[in-house]
Write a structure and sequence with these properties.
Elements: E1 18-32, E2 38-46, E3 49-55, H1 59-65, E4 71-81, E5 84-95, H2 113-126, H3 130-141, H4 143-151, H5 165-183, H6 189-198, H7 203-206, E6 207-208, E7 215-216, H8 218-240, H9 247-258, H10 274-298, E8 307-308, E9 320-321, H11 325-339, H12 348-351
Parallel strand pairs: 3-5
Antiparallel strand pairs: 1-2, 1-4, 2-3, 4-5, 6-7, 8-9
Helix pairs in contact: 2-5, 2-6, 3-8, 5-6, 5-10, 6-9, 6-10, 9-10
Bound molecules: fe (ii) ion (FE2) (2 copies).
One fe (ii) ion is lined by residues 169, 199-200, 283, 287.
């Protein structure tokens, strides 16, 4: 079947312009106008982002015409509402799933994922602690786990919420662990490396991502990725005949259980070792910086230099954001080329 033309991407939509394109339905709600008449609120998704849309006329009929996860071809107008772009849909038709190229609708990590996976494989091989090395090797012997680990997002929203996000997050943590153990050589590197790779492995079952939008599975909502991760590890330990709760395995499991740092964030125990403490901080840092990078993308067209994000309810603040990292890097590069300086030390950006 010939694939349908995608049309415009969400990131390219500007207020005042007509919009023609195919999008995936991320959510739909039948809402009420002030006069009591219904309208349809739809969240549309593609690989470049998501956007709110409204269908004002004939709401009940349109509401029944498509479901979450369907692909729809729309004709719409882009308007500005509450400082955000919103679509007013004037016409729509459903598009069969076979008629679309799925890669247009799933956001994907900007990282080189093959390189990131090589980094994980290398890190496993370099683990000196035999129990940890055998455990990790055995887990990834499972082709299904390996395949899912290479594609899973790290979250539904917030951080690394795209295909390959989990692997990108893991590769970042491996780099950060390298930096931290250089400064604090008494920290147990093998434990931190194993924790970087395994702490979020439960996300391969917590989230679904084959069909947009990225969402929680029933198992994920009901159990959470920490519990699922421990289950994956325990099953593997049984396969290789290792004791479940002793030595470095126990310490690793403690980090996985405590990596969210607080009970109200889903960790059943608080970090109680130096490595658990450090790991929680690194994990939190990588997640939060990735979240802020996402805000920079959204704020991209708002002007030059620093700019304010929308109010972030979760963090109870606005963020004051610099130009995109890429822009800064390009500026820096132009500057050093001007001066013909040879970089003496690798910067943080070279290491991450
Ligand atoms: Fe986590
Ligand atoms: Fe994480």
């Amino acid at each position: 079947m010939k694939k349908l033309d995608k049309g415009i991407y969400i990131k390219d939509i500007v207020p005042g312009k007509k919009v023609t394109g195919v999008f995936c339905v991320g959510a739909k709600n039948l809402l009420k106008k002030r006069d009591g008449n219904p309208f349809v609120g739809v969240t549309l998704v593609d690989c470049s982002g998501q956007i709110e849309a409204r269908i004002w006329d004939d709401a009940e009929r349109h509401f029944e015409a498509f479901n979450k996860g369907d692909f729809i071809s729309i004709e719409a107008e882009a308007v500005e509402f509450n400082q955000k772009i919103q679509l007013k849909i004037n016409g729509l038709s459903q598009v069969p799933g076979e008629g679309v190229d799925i890669s247009h609708f799933l956001p994907t990590s900007p990282c080189d994922l093959d390189k990131a996976w090589n980094k994980v494989e290398r890190a496993i091989k370099e683990i000196k602690d035999a129990s940890l090395r055998v455990l990790l090797t055995n887990i990834f012997k499972d082709i299904g786990i390996k395949k899912a680990f290479k594609r899973a997002p790290a979250a539904k929203r917030l951080h690394h919420a795209y295909i390959g996000g989990l692997l990108e997050h893991v590769a970042n943590l491996l780099d950060l662990v390298k930096l931290v153990v250089r400064k604090y050589p008494y920290l147990k590197k093998d434990i931190l490396v194993a924790a970087s790779i395994l702490h979020d492995i439960g996300k391969i079952r917590e989230l679904s991502w084959d069909i947009p939008p990225i969402d929680y599975t029933d198992e994920g909502r009901l159990m959470g990725h920490i519990n699922i991760g421990i289950e994956i590890i325990d099953r593997s330990l049984k396969e290789i005949g290792l004791n479940e709760n002793t030595g470095s395995i126990l310490i690793l499991k403690h980090i996985i259980l405590s990596h969210h740092g607080q009970r109200e964030y889903g960790s059943p125990v608080l970090p109680m070792t130096e490595e658990a403490m450090v790991f929680h901080l690194l994990d939190d840092m990588d997640a939060k910086l990735n979240f802020l990078s996402g805000l920079k993308d959204v704020a991209k067209d708002n002007g030059e230099g620093y700019r304010w994000s929308d109010y972030q309810r979760l963090f109870e603040r606005y963020f004051y954001l610099p130009p995109e990292a890429q822009e800064l890097l390009e500026k820096e590069k132009a500057h050093s080329e001007d001066k013909k300086e040879e970089p003496t030390q690798p910067g943080l950006w070279d290491l991450l």
